[in-house]
Amino acid sequence: MTDLPTDLTRATAADLADALARKTISSVEVTQAHLDRIAAVDGQVHSYLHVDTDGALAQARAVDERRRAGESLGALAGVPIAVKDVMTTKGVPTTCGSRILEGWIPPYDATVVTKLRESGLPILGKTNMDEFAMGSSTEHSAYGPSHNPWDLDRIPGGSGGGSSSVLASFQAPLATGTDTGGSIRQPAAVTATVGTKPTYGGVSRYGLVALASSLDQAGPCGRTVLDTALLHAVMGGHDPMDSTSIDAPVPPVVEAARAADVRGMKIGVVKELGGEGYQPGVRARFDESVALLEELGAEVVEVSCPNFEYALAAYYLILPSEASSNLAKFDAMRYGLRVLPEGVDAPSAEQVMAATRDAGFGDEVKRRIILGTYALSSGYYDAYYGSAQKVRALIAQDFDAAYSKVDVLVSPTAPTTAFRLGDKLEDPMAMYLNDIATIPANLAGVPGMSIPSGLADEDGLPAGIQILAPATKDERLYSVGAALEAALVDRWGGPILDRAPSLGGAAAAKGA
Amino acid sequence: MSTATADAVMDYDEAMGKFDPVMGLEVHVELHTATKMFCGCPTEFGAEPNSQVCPVCLGLPGALPVVNEKAVESAIRIGLALNCEIAEWCRFARKNYFYPDMPKNFQTSQYDEPIAFEGHLDVELEDGTVYRVEIERAHMEEDTGKSLHIGGATGRIHGADHSLVDYNRAGIPLIEIVTKPMVGAGERAPEVAKAYVSALRDLLRALDVSDVKMEQGSMRCDANVSLRPRVGAPLDEAQLAVPLGTRTETKNVNSLRSVERAVRYEISRHAAILDGGGSILQETRHWHEDTGITTSGRVKSDAEDYRYFPEPDLVPVAPTRETVEALRGTLPEPPGLRRKRLQSDWGYSDLEMRDVVNAGAVELIEETVAAGASAGAAKKWWLGEPSRRANGEGQDIVTYAAGLGLTPAHIAELDGLVTAGRLNDSMARQVLDGVLAGEGTPTAVADARGLELVQDDGALEAAVDKVIEANPDVAAKIRDGKVAAAGALIGQVMKEMKGQADAGKARELILAKLQ
């Protein structure tokens, strides 16, 4: 039994859950501590788009009440959480980082949110993201970027940079994410936090505002592998409201995280992910991690996935195609922003739609809608969307071939550490390349996780290692992740995130 | 009132001399499943606007569809009844276009992988000729919401002041049934079109998958028409080899009669344009029931592109062969065979049966017979006044009778009153008038109007005696064996009795007294 730190925001979710179960603290205390932290530091980090103080405290009180009444509660009951703003929350604004949904209050909860509520996790607020999850930095949020707690001039990753920076700045012990091409894993990598993209269909997509339906997957974000597993178990499972949801129990992720055992496992290093374009410090930390896994009793081999080379190109056809259709519903007719065209007396529905979409969508969203509309057009469909689907099948074959030889695959999560805000904003291709290692998993629907691998020598910023497993074998991510995490904590003399600059002083100074 | 002006048209017979018509019919059928295609909302017609909606059918951000299995079953049964192949594996697709009554701005439909394909339906025309309509496909999709344009003269969006949208209809399961080009019908093309839609309606009703009420929009027909030069008889090989002309698609054709009229009108209109050296614009046309003409709608250019792609939010539909065969076992007797059986049960001649079928009264008669009437009486009453009036109103008999509350039980009751000797034919007609006027059941009408045959034999005998005495010449003829002359006396007896006598009985008495 671990003693909780005086500052409750520094505790892990697992430890908070233990203390709550033992009734040594209340959910209201924990929730209030995080709300105080948000008030102190979010002015610098800008992780949240909306903080639901009253709602969170009301849920905390309710769960405390249930505990007092002796109800049997879930493993994370009373532990507060931050929810990515792409998930609908009944009565709480949901913008997806877009101007076009400004002011929209959903009338229903996403299934994931329902599960969080039923499991008694007070929702602190909604986290920032690139508009409709399109980006790797949060710079495409219509409400301004979030900042990396390791260096406020740098990006916290994206699209889930709100959730990663929340965790790295101790504004919540847990957060939800969605990962279409790396939006959980890359932000985790650049902030020294943990994030899992489960098997496609492992977590319900009902209530996730869709970017690309066949690629989107919601998943858990935490500061430790165990915390992430605990949240994974709450979020996952079959949902009859999502036809693509897997009708099977959640894989034994918590058990795997607790066992943290890689002995006898075969681990494949993906030859194609990690060469040219990867920062030396990122590469060095990755190689060390692989060596550690070998020391822990795993067998490591190199594996080739030749078609990964085409993954980025295929992804940037499939994603915009689906997105162009998914985003068509934002037309000012039923909800969200409505802009009337200037200088038109009695505008038609079509003119209002056009004016609203022009004003409400940012450049990156428009770029992808245009790309997708083009790729699906008759006469181009076979060459673009059709070919991309073939590449997708080839990538899935590469994974199948690899998993016939090894139990999991590993690679650096992102090619670089966090870049500076503004550095890649004018160069979409450079921004897209940040997801080169994470995209194949989305195309094939297999699960992936990023955990911190250490700090890069050249800039002292966090690097991440990605673990990939076969579909529905999510527990393997946690076996490997937890074992490696423990070894790295030993090596670094504590969690890597402990080395992040404290933001408290600055906030206190600002508050004074 | 439609303000549209009519185009030039060519006389139909002249048009047929110069051109060969080809049709293609697309029929949309709303399934009467309890819930919508992709969500659990009810499908009831006529509910308060926007009261049968949820995040899914409103297309709210984040909502996802789940396929209604009952709708898939209905689609398969329709496919089987149309002699189609049933796909072993097929997907939904998104049809992308913007319109305010379409919540997601794409319609979840099927594109190149329909659930059912390659079938046919044999259609019997009024004279008994059978025309085989080849079915290209039947696919599943969802209905859109319904726009109501307020303030304009035509009820269309152009000129409207504002529009209202009711999303109750959004997401109701639809089956779209598409024919292959219907060739070789020649001058009978409009008749074939009507007979096809009518046969399809009967089939769908027998399958019990839809309300098939054209006036409520649960069955809607779009008629594609094109003409090509006439080079021979409709079925001549040379004629069939002539390439198809440019087609127009006439929407909003929502009664059987309109299907026939609209096709006929389009043929005459195309003919006038082509004969004048013009060319047909590929476009949608709107049918105007009141004026019987079509007007130009949306021009369909080649640029129109729905950007179909497989619906990623749904998994493929893959009915096992066992499921398909089990569903085949639930198919009702095909309407054609059923008619033959009923004709034999009822003892109707071919001509009588065709009259009944053309009047759309098969089911009514079947129910009336089941309620106790004789087949002859059921036919006589349904094809009489109710049928005449329905025609006058431009409605089918089923809809007309339902609208007035006239039921098979009423007709059986009426027939029972005649058989029991309470009413004679002319009195029964008066009673039927009363029922049609909403005065109540036949017994109630007869009671209220005081219609009843006089059962007092004394009164009848007195009247007979009086008439015989007044007509000695006629009486003598009857005594000489000219029994047919009794008719003249019966008429007078009925007059004496103010119509309230049983003519049969009067005849018996007269003959008894004079032989």
Category from helices, strands and their pairing of chain A: alpha/beta
Overall geometric form of chain A: globular
Largest sheet of chain A: 8 strands, mixed
State the helix count of chain A. Answer: 17
Task: Give the strand tally of chain B.
Answer: 14
Helix content of chain B: 25-40%
- Determine the N-to-C terminus distance of chain B: 68 Å
What would you report as the Rg of chain A, rounded to the nearest angstrom? 22 Å
What is the count of structural domains of chain B?
A: 3
User: Regions of chain A with pLDDT < 50 over 5+ consecutive residues?
Assistant: 505-512
Q: What is the CATH superfamily classification of chain A? A: Amidase signature (AS) domain
H/E topology pattern of chain A? HHEHEHEHEHEEHHEHEHHHHEHHEEHH
Q: Remind me, CATH topology of chain A?
A: Amidase signature (AS) enzymes
Task: Kindly provide the radius of gyration of chain B, computed on alpha-carbon positions and rounded to a whole number of angstroms.
Answer: 29 Å
Poorly predicted sequence stretches spanning 5 or more consecutive residues of chain B: none
Mean pLDDT of chain A: 96
Number of separate strands of chain A? 11
